[in-house]
Q: What sequence folds into this?
């Protein structure tokens, strides 16, 4: 059993993917090839924004988005402590300070009711994370941000394809950043990512920064980094994007199978009524997680933990001079109990039932 079955996906679409890769090998434009611009155009149209800027990774996308907003030492960026480390890492890399806001216990997303209290005169960006495939409460966050004239970056690494009140993730803030890491709902065969925006000036800055601040060859008008998406990744992503909507429908079906087969207390985070999740992960909460995970492994069922520790509890943060040792009780409680189950659009209903039966047996209930 596979946790994420990329091999089955490849075998099913092998002819198209191989042909796309061969086209790049034949034309030889491994950077800035035509596939990159084509992918950017298709994704911008899909999300509903004017600009998509292809990047070398989701982490790079976050880094460049913050650079485009001139974030630096002394600045504060508000975000959630319940995310992959890259969310905080890019803030530290620029010499800025992450300020954490705890999560809602039902959705595991940044709690807007706690947001305003975290704003100071040093707050420069609010960066909510659309976790597990579900968008954060962007209207509430944007309303507070607008009141204080603070830009918002949606960390949409896990939510491309999700909708919030009918709008696509990526079109809900000043900038949004996504990842095409292989395990994502739309994933490449290596690292890549993208930024989305409707702001022409921000798009211009991000394109500059993504290519060493280079306006024309050897004419550097800004400090930048190497953040380009290579053409081979773009070619693969174009073929996967062609089946993306179909796979999103299947992901919804797999989620429904899980929901029907699991007891109520083992359900994943609540999906808000105005949201449609893409289920980047299917994550439940269990007691005695290590024992449950070991028993599932013995039954041939792979699992993962997203995430076992809050960002504020990472070792490099704990030894930092900026560590304030502030507790985030909801994050800390979730981090002790979350467990992600196998999830991909090639799961069969009987396999989902097998997983649920084994999980129920581990926690001592009947389904």
A:
């Amino acid at each position: 059993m596979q946790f994420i079955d990329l091999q089955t996906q490849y075998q099913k679409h092998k002819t198209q993917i191989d042909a796309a890769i061969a086209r790049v090998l034949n034309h030889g434009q491994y950077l800035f090839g035509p596939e990159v611009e084509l992918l950017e155009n298709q994704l911008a149209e899909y999300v509903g924004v004017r600009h998509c800027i292809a990047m070398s990774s989701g982490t790079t996308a976050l880094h460049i988005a913050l650079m485009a907003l001139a974030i630096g030492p002394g600045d504060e960026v508000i975000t959630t402590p319940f995310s992959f480390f890259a969310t905080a890492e890019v803030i530290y890399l620029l010499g800025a300070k992450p300020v954490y806001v705890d999560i809602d216990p039902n959705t595991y997303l940044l709690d807007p009711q706690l947001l305003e209290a975290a704003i100071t005169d040093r707050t420069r960006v609010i960066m909510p994370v659309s976790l597990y495939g579900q968008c954060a409460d962007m209207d509430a966050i944007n309303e507070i941000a607008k009141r204080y004239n603070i830009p918002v970056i949606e960390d949409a690494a896990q939510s491309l394809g999700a909708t919030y009140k009918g709008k696509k993730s990526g079109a809900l803030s000043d900038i949004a950043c996504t990842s095409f890491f292989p395990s994502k709902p739309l994933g490449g065969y290596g690292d890549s990512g993208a930024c989305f925006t409707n702001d022409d000036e921000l798009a211009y800055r991000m394109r500059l920064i993504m290519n060493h601040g280079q306006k024309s060859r050897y004419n550097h008008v800004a400090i930048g980094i190497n953040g380009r998406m290579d053409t081979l990744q773009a070619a693969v992503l174009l073929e996967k994007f062609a089946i993306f909507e179909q796979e999103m429908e299947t992901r919804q079906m797999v989620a429904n199978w899980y929901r029907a087969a699991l007891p109520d207390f083992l359900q994943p985070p609540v999906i808000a009524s105005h949201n449609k999740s893409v289920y980047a992960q299917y994550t439940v909460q269990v007691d005695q997680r290590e024992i449950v995970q070991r028993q599932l492994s013995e039954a041939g069922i792979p699992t993962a933990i997203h995430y076992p520790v809050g960002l504020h509890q990472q070792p490099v943060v704990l030894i930092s001079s900026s560590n304030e040792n502030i507790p985030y009780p909801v994050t800390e409680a979730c981090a002790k109990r979350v467990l992600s189950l196998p999830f991909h659009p090639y799961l069969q209903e009987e396999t989902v039932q097998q997983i649920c039966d084994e999980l129920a047996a581990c926690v001592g209930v009947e389904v």
